[in-house]
Amino acid sequence: MRSLVGDLVLVRLQEERDPLLHKRLYNALRRAILDGSLAPQSRLPPSRDLAGELGVSRNTILTTYEQLLAEGYVVSRRGSGTFVAQTAPESSLTAKEERENNSLAAPTAHLSRRGQHLLGQVSASPRQWGAFIPGVPDVNAFPHPLFSKIQARISRRPKPERLSYSCNGGTPELQQALVDYLRVSRGVPLSVRSNSYHRGDPPGDRSGHPHAV
């Protein structure tokens, strides 16, 4: 699996025209640093890893990193790796590069009048977690150690069906767990039959009115 930097470099390499690979790689990384695609202090992949992702020799990556380091675009930290410099050299993309960027940029898309209206009707809160938000549990109370232990146990011998599309309505184990929970916590007599839920008459209620779930 390629890193995000590897994916970015592959795209930028296609935009470069220089016949020499290490120069195309240098220009791709330099432009990514200058236009902010690679943020200050972001870590570049180790030379061996990036070489494997791009299918080039490690020496090509080392040459590129050394040139970026010499010109102040990146810094090297012993034992930690190579990072984008906090402040890039005072330079900007040349007019030629800007024209190339503009020619490669996708045209600006505009929403239709209906799309703008629908966007204005969005009522979801930008804050999706925290106190006093309806429907959101206290995730701080989530039993992470227990969950990790169970997940590790199940992952050691996964069933083939868990690596494909799930059953209709969820896996049988999940369905049964929901039935057991609702029966105990809400008093709702449910059963699982053929991947669907069936409700029986609750004790003391023969009118057919379901209990709140």
From TrEMBL:
Signal peptide: none annotated. Residues 198-213 have a biased composition (Basic and acidic residues). It comes from the Bacteria. Keywords: DNA-binding, Pyridoxal phosphate, Transcription, Transcription regulation. Coiled coil: none annotated. Residues 19-87 form the HTH gntR-type domain. SUPFAM superfamilies: PLP-dependent transferases (SSF53383), Winged helix' DNA-binding domain (SSF46785). In the C-terminal section; belongs to the class-I pyridoxal-phosphate-dependent aminotransferase family. This is Transcriptional regulator GabR. The lineage of its organism: Bacteria, Pseudomonadati, Pseudomonadota, Gammaproteobacteria, Enterobacterales. The gene is gabR_3.
